[in-house]
Amino acid sequence: SDFISGFIGVWFYEYESYISTFGVREFEWGKGLGELLLIQAIYNVIYKGGKSISLEVRKSNFEAIKLYQKYGFRKVGMRKFYYSNNNEDAIIMTVNDIDFDDYKNKILYLINFHSQKWKLLSEIESLK
Question: How far is the C-alpha of 106 from the C-alpha of 98, rounded, in Å?
Fold first, then answer.
């Protein structure tokens, strides 16, 4: 096709990472693509030895917040009037300790569950 269905941008620091941009075309919603992009970002951060990932999300974006929480992100703060187009607040979300086995096992489970449901990626045995 001649268009982009979705994208995610990640900034890598030493052990911290930041999801700077993330979007999926509206007509692609509900097909597992956004979750696949998030999985790939988390996988890459783990692979590069990261220990945490942070992001901002619109306060009104309940579906995205729910997805982030599924992957261990927790609300840690708010940026008032963050989005310039409508002055909406942004919720700051972070997941720490992604290098711990408990988190890696959770992500491995979620990756394989996504794989079985959507058939967009292959199942994997390890995140090491």
Answer: 10
